[in-house]
Specification:
about 210 residues, alpha+beta, 3-methyladenine DNA Glycosylase, Chain A, eight-stranded antiparallel beta sheet, about 10% helix
């Protein structure tokens, strides 16, 4: 069945959604929403099934924690912008900047359930890749997201997020974030969230239902 973005149901998230103060709650609220890109004339969409929260204050796992730099400057801007950084010089990781100017919070989108433009995603992933949108670098490649898109307005028409169906309810599970062992005690924060029973997450979680 072809998924169509019905604008009467799936409305683009407003700026106010991203500017709420609790990045952990936003990371949960993004689950079930639909990430959309329209790049080089190609339209792709995927349901968000896995996220991680990062706080610019008191979170050693956050890039902006105590070190404002040219790389992280976009995180200090208004919520509702894209922060895309390069990991290991290869993977382009897409983050949603949240909170108000000066706070530097962000949510990493870790996995999607592909729902539209799947043939385009496969071409971008060179057809042979087993995982189409499971993992942050993988989903960025499939969706055409590149580090040069840092700063893109998520209320514009290149990268945006639309709301989930009012009828859809998701069960959320939580676990520690992936690849942040360097963050000492902050590595233990249960700030990775997934939709329970999703087949598209990058890694299952061990924790019980999130509050």
């Amino acid at each position: 069945m072809v998924f169509e973005i019905n604008t009467s149901v799936y409305e683009k998230l407003p700026r106010s959604f991203y500017q709420k103060p609790d990045v952990v709650q936003i990371a949960k609220d993004l689950l079930g929403k639909v990430l959309v890109t329209q790049i080089d004339g190609y339209f792709t969409a995927g349901k968000i099934v896995e996220t991680e929260a990062y706080c610019g204050r008191g979170d050693k796992a956050c890039h902006a924690n105590g070190k404002r730099s040219p790389r992280t400057e976009i995180m200090y801007g208004e919520g509702g912008r894209a922060y895309v950084y390069l990991c290991y010089g290869i993977h382009h990781l897409f983050n949603v900047v949240t909170n108000v100017e000066g706070k530097a919070d962000a949510v990493l989108i870790r996995a999607l359930e592909p729902i539209q433009g799947i043939d385009i995603m496969k071409e971008r992933r060179n057809f042979t890749k087993a995982k189409l949108t499971s993992g942050p670098g993988t989903l960025s490649q499939a969706m055409g997201i590149h580090v040069k898109m840092t700063g893109e307005d998520l209320c514009d028409n290149q990268i945006w997020i639309v709301g989930s169906s009012p009828k859809e309810k998701v069960e959320i599970l939580s676990d520690t974030r992936i690849g942040v062992e360097y963050a000492e005690e902050d590595a233990l924060k249960p700030w990775r969230f997934i939709i329970a029973d999703s087949k598209f997450v990058s890694k299952p979680v061990k924790q019980k239902k999130s509050g």
